[in-house]
Amino acid sequence: MSRYCSQCGKSLKACICQWIQSLPSKVELVILQHPSESNRPMGTARILTLSLANSYSFVGEDFSQHSTLNQLLAQSEVQHFVLYPGESAVSHQRVADKVAAQQKVRIIILDGTWKKAYKMWQLSSNLHALPLIRLPENLQGNYRIRKAPSDNSLSTVEAGYHILQLLQPETDFAPLIEAFNQMIEFQIKQMPPGVFEKNYLS
Ligand SMILES: [Zn+2]
């Protein structure tokens, strides 16, 4: 018998499936995951793909020749935005208006540390022509497990939650954050006393 859950890919002991709720979303997410993220026990992108039936997840670093992604990008009836900071980023309100007007929107999320995401962005030239969308700057993350470069850096599931909630205020995406918090609580309980405080609180 495998030691890993076939649904969430985590160890059976750390299975997160009991906290996952299936959520309807008109906005589709495309998660581009850096290979170094895919085996991390705290990878949070999984919560997004398990909760959102119409999401996509691909692993790689340079996506410029990724045929499935390029097929998605070629769908002219869908407007694509990359969730990435940049001077030219459009306001989420403008995109929310499109969603409210029943236009099809897909958000591409880069899943990796800041440095890895930057590398992915640089290499994946097929993303460069797409408009950027960014989150408000004052959002607080709860990623206590992972050392964050700054106070407002968010885990991938938190970034996904915020963008979906901002674009679709009529739907409650809080179960994403609840599953995330349960996962953190579980991980903290697994650590020997003092380790969490010593290594992860900063
Ligand atoms: Zn599971």
UniProtKB/TrEMBL annotation:
Biological processes per GO annotation: tRNA processing
Transmembrane portions of the chain: none
UniProt superkingdom: Bacteria
Record carries keyword Transmembrane helix: no
Residues in DTW domain copies: 1-192
Molecular function terms from GO: tRNA-uridine aminocarboxypropyltransferase activity
Keywords, alphabetical: S-adenosyl-L-methionine, Transferase, tRNA processing
Claim: Transferase is one of the keywords in the record: yes
EC number: 2.5.1.25
Family, as annotated: Belongs to the TDD superfamily. DTWD2 family.
Protein name, as recorded: tRNA-uridine aminocarboxypropyltransferase
Organism of provenance: Vibrio sinaloensis DSM 21326
